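Summary for the steering committee. One of the milestones for this cycle was to obtain a three-dimensional model of the protein with magnesium ion bound, which we needed before selecting residues for the alanine scan. The sequence and ligand used are listed below.
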Amino acid sequence: MAPAPRPLRAVLLDMGGVLLDFGNAEGLPVGRHDWRGREALLALLRRPGGPPLAQKHLDELLFDPWKREHARRYEQVREADWHPHLARLRRHAKRRFSDRRLLAAWFAPFAETVTPVPGAREAVAALAAAGVPLALVSNIPLPSPLYRELLARHGFLPAFRHLQWSYDAGSRKPSPAMLHAALAALGVPPEEALMVGDRRSADVVAGRAAGVATAWLRSPDSAGPAPDFELAAMAELPALVTRLREGRRG
Ligand SMILES: [Mg+2]
């Protein structure tokens, strides 16, 4: 007879598509928000008598070289580093703004458009109120303070005991490394944890590799291994967690 499943003690949550809706799969400024952000970045960098600075300089010095590295993130299993490209832009502009200040200028118009996923705030609040340790495990293409600020703005931050970000970790899902780090931070073994994500190709693959149970919030990212559980909406998560904490899988 198979051993009885261990009661659940902790939940790991993805961010994009699970807590926050970025309007695109990557959580990056696109379209007119990208354009407005670039204008804000140029306004920050330009000064009277300074070197010429136009959109084409941003592409040549910053965005194009970063995108070439970003395109290799799956084979590298880590995020592309903005620093060398921002340093190149700073040298051209003869300005000293920090990486974070420059990226925040670009990111800000897009950040205004980010909204909570329906039911996510209530679900996370219910889990936190029930005393379930929560950790975030998120792939992000930009430094974590930009996204941490969004979690705070939308009321998610107090519920989390640990935040694990790919940009800081030097690893990204589907590698299980960030899940192992989050579990170690919570002091919970994999067989007593659940990973909740909207991408089977990243969250479910990483969860299975880490040895945690997986719950997939249905999305178009449906290729990859089958999850242990499926959620039609975040509102269903607290009841699933309650069941698993009681040791019931069915
Ligand atoms: Mg996601």
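Key point for the committee: The longest strand covers residues 134-138.
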